[in-house]
Design goal:
alpha/beta, 15% strand, binds ligand T4K, 3-stranded antiparallel β-sheet
Length: 385
């Protein structure tokens, strides 16, 4: 086909379409908050805006505590430490590298268990296989905002006396069986990175109903200080700054419209792409609350093109689709060298990581652009059949 950029035509889009283009609420409100920050000269250290954001995020998730942090990775590290994880912790390999690094960084061994190829989240039976006398915990990841097998993982944690926590970086505003994320396991960790549908520039938080755990994490994120000159706990600097909290407050005000845009985009993609054979779009349980922030297309075995061929063709059109979280953490350094045989037990991880394509969505997209993206995919696939 001569009208495709891979065949020499001009790209469909002059400017690149990114996955993870930030959603930004009212600029005027943000600038007003910034004036308040400057006037008050209160920039960091658990300021009033951080406290307000924590209260609102906790209320939003119907959970007792939200402990805001400077990013999701530090939030993971602090939660892992506050829970007293050590030795080995079972996690999926099919996740963002931060889940594994947050453990390795603290000399804890991430043990990769396989996922379910339909849900893309940890398969409890695979987790069970990986438990040893050194195992202290499990970290489930609510990938794409779809809840992990919460009950299955909790049952294993109870049986083996393990700590269970969740990496909920994708799951802000999502629910499981009618209950908001934040209420499962000992605690759940959110990311507010710029590319997440709810952002604070950089940021993250831990949600928990455990008073003691929340208090420990509050100490840990502020060097262990309890009042002036009084350090009562080991700690680090995990504090969120006021300007980040201000961005969070502004983006919380806009959250319903962002979710509406994401939901609408997802439905347009789903409707258009489900007409094609060889590919499918990952669905969400419409009876739950979803943020629809990731639109994930899966390339089936009957697809006339490989996933990588489709990605190359889309990139040529300036559609910067992504192959998150290929090739799996176990295939990245240092884990590839440390555990060279990990892949032997990760067949579903490989299968899923090799066929996923994440498409641009969010408020930077609209129906017109999405229809161009889907028609390019249609032409690509039809041309090959
Ligand atoms: N656990 C899970 C399951 C996670 O997915 C993540 C983060 C974490 C833990 C850790 O949370 P944080 O410590 O990050 O809070 C992104 C993000 O950097 C990362 O936060 C996120 N997961 C991951 C899934 O995606 P990349 O590889 O997409 O690259 P990045 O950040 O360069 O952004 C992608 C594209 O977005 C850029 O090409 C352009 C666009 N973009 C990006 C930024 C930052 C913008 O248009 N504006 C921007 O400001 O990693």
């Amino acid at each position: 086909m001569g009208d495709l950029a891979i065949n020499g035509a001009a790209p469909a889009f002059e400017q690149p379409l990114h996955v993870g283009r930030p959603n930004i609420g009212s600029r005027d409100s943000f600038l007003a908050y910034a004036e308040t920050i400057f006037d008050s000269r209160w920039l960091s250290n658990n300021g009033p805006m951080v406290q307000e954001l924590e209260q609102r995020v906790a209320d939003y998730h119907d959970v007792k505590h939200c402990v805001a942090m400077c990013n999701g990775t530090v939030a993971l590290e602090i939660a892992i430490r506050a829970l007293g994880l050590e030795g080995e912790v079972v996690i999926p390999s099919y996740t963002f590298i931060a889940t594994a690094h947050a453990l390795h960084w603290q000399a804890i061994t991430p043990v990769f268990a396989d996922i379910d190829s339909v849900t893309h989240t940890l398969d409890p039976d695979a987790v069970r296989q990986m438990i040893t006398p050194r195992t202290s915990g499990i970290i489930g990841v609510h990938l794409w905002g779809r809840a992990s097998a919460v009950e299955g993982l909790q049952a294993i944690a109870d049986e083996y006396d393990l700590k269970l926590m969740f990496d909920a970086a994708h799951a802000f505003g999502c629910s499981h069986k009618g209950q908001m994320i934040g209420n499962f396991g000992a605690c759940e960790v959110l990311s507010f990175h710029a590319t997440k549908f709810f952002n604070t520039f950089e940021g993250g938080a831990v949600l928990t109903n455990d008073d003691e755990l929340a208090e420990t994490m509050r100490l840990m994120r502020n060097f262990g200080f309890s009042g002036l000159d009084n350090v009562i706990h080991p700690g680090t600097n995990g504090k969120m700054i006021e300007v980040s909290a201000a961005m969070g407050l502004v983006n919380l005000d806009a959250i319903d419209s962002v979710i509406d845009a994401n939901r609408y985009n997802y439905h347009v993609y789903h409707e258009e792409l489900s007409k094609l054979t060889g590919i499918s779009v990952l669905t969400f349980d419409e009876t739950e609350r979803n943020n629809y922030q990731y639109v994930v297309m899966e390339v089936g075995e009957d697809c006339p093109m490989t996933r990588d061929q489709i990605i190359i063709a889309l990139h040529a059109e300036n559609i910067l689709a992504r192959k998150y979280f290929w090739p799996g953490c176990h295939n990245m350094k240092p884990y590839r060298q440390l555990y060279p045989h990990a892949g032997l037990l990760l067949a579903n991880t490989k299968k899923v990581a090799d066929r996923g394509i994440v498409l641009p969505t969010g408020t930077a997209m609209d129906t017109g652009r999405i229809r161009v993206v889907t028609s390019i995919i249609r032409v690509l696939l039809t041309d090959k059949t």
